[in-house]
Amino acid sequence: MRQASPRRRQRGFTLIELVVASGILAVLALAVIPVAKVASVRAKEIELRQHLRTVRLAIDAYHEAAEAGEIAPEVLEPDHENYPPDLEALVEGVPGPPDPEGRVPVLRFLRRLPVDPFTGRTDWLLRSWQDDPDTLRWGGENVYDLRSASPRRGLDGTLYRSW
């Protein structure tokens, strides 16, 4: 029979092994954090582009409907150049011409106003047809275009306001 030695061999990790393993994990974690932040910003940028495209298409649809006479003439203002007076008109809708039975349809171009992913609000910077293209102030005549209200810069170095 074998006798147990006074010094039993214990199983487990030594202190040095634990320190080395912890150091490797820390280096890996430090490398992953910036990549995760860039991925998060990139996802918000994609969402911003989608929201801008959606609202711009709705503005264009409103303009085309107004040009085609599908919006009731009493709604259209002469100085609005057939663009919506505000973004709420795209959501709330505008009356169309009455049908032969006298019913007035409501034309809606957006279900809801999208949220700017960088500001968390629907506070878009608007531009009217009459405004200077480089201005950040909305003249209030109509809505020709919109931009993000975020003062931040994108991953490509451009301001989100210029998108």
Shape: elongated
Largest sheet: 2 strands, antiparallel
Total number of helices: 2
Q: What is the structural class?
A: mainly alpha
Taking all residues together, what is the mean pLDDT? 88
Strand order of the largest sheet: 1-2
Quaternary state reads: single chain
Strand content: 5-15%
Structure explained in plain terms:
With 163 residues, the protein is mainly α. The protein has one domain. It contains two helices and four strands, in the order H-H-E-E-E-E. The strands form two sheets. Strands 1-2 form a two-stranded antiparallel sheet. Strands 3-4 form a two-stranded antiparallel ribbon. The chain is elongated. The model has no long low-confidence stretch (mean pLDDT 88).
